[in-house]
Amino acid sequence: MTRRVWLAGVALLAAARWKARAAGLTWDESVRGSLGSDRRYRVDAQVVLFSVPLVRRAGVGAGTAAWRELSGEDGVTRILEFTAFSFPDRAAGLNRLGFIQERIRLAEAGMTEAIYFGLMTASAEESTEEARRALHSTASQVAYTAVDARIQSHSTETATAHFTAPAAFSLGHRVQLEQMARQALASAPRNSVDLSPDGVPTPPFLDALAELLHRPNGGEGRYIYNGRLYHLRLRRAADPKASEHFLARGLVSGPVIAMTGMLQRVGGKQIDFRLWVEESAAHPVPLRIEYQPKSYLRLAFEAEA
């Protein structure tokens, strides 16, 4: 009887482990014991007109980035996250918030599966005049867009939802915003596409960027976001001035590399960006990020000590 109970227990445990593997990655899995790097940023903004800087203001927002990895029986789980948010009292009343989380299962041959979740305030301003009208808004609600996806060998399932939240919500209300986003996504249709050549899954954005950051000469890749395919390119160059700057601040112990990047949706507009990383870092979370999300706006994320 004891032997039968023991065998039944072993069988149930094996079945539970198989079911967990079959179910794939989940957000409920613990990431305790993961190793990696985290950074916090100060966000500076610059208003431009025809590429000519007009106004610059430091500290209009903040951000965080994390790159962690956890080894397990099924390989390595990579956890990536990026968050950015504004300080309305420093950003002329603009309350903007966005973040994206990714979990990627890595095996010897590369990525086998990934999930990602993100949300951001819906910012429709495309001109300086539209941006001016958005300043000091008196609206009681703010619109958000949320996305949830799973990437596997031959398919990517994506759900997108829109919802509103109180205008006073900020990063301190992240838990409530995530709950509202999950609720909106629960009733959203899930669209499936196959953008994986030869059964090799196409990674999400942060993981595609992480892989290129590991390459000695940068290179080109592609990623999938919200069911759409994007191209990504990075070019590396030594930057002695940046190395001196970050060494003096105690943020690095060796040379810093400047990365010039480009991302573009297939058939869409090209977006250029720059970032700086420590050359020898095992998990090269950027020290500085510069990009232009709107024609009239440039943002710089500067790592804090």
General description of the model:
The structure is a single chain. The chain has 305 residues and is an alpha+beta fold. The chain has one domain. It is built from five helices and 14 strands. The chain has helices spanning 2-23, 128-134, 174-186, 205-214, 240-248, and strands at residues 35-49, 52-72, 75-86, 97-107, 110-121, 141-151, 156-166, 190-193, 219-225, 228-238, 256-265, 270-278, 288-294, 297-303.
SSE layout and pairings?
Layout: H1 2-23, E1 35-49, E2 52-72, E3 75-86, E4 97-107, E5 110-121, H2 128-134, E6 141-151, E7 156-166, H3 174-186, E8 190-193, H4 205-214, E9 219-225, E10 228-238, H5 240-248, E11 256-265, E12 270-278, E13 288-294, E14 297-303
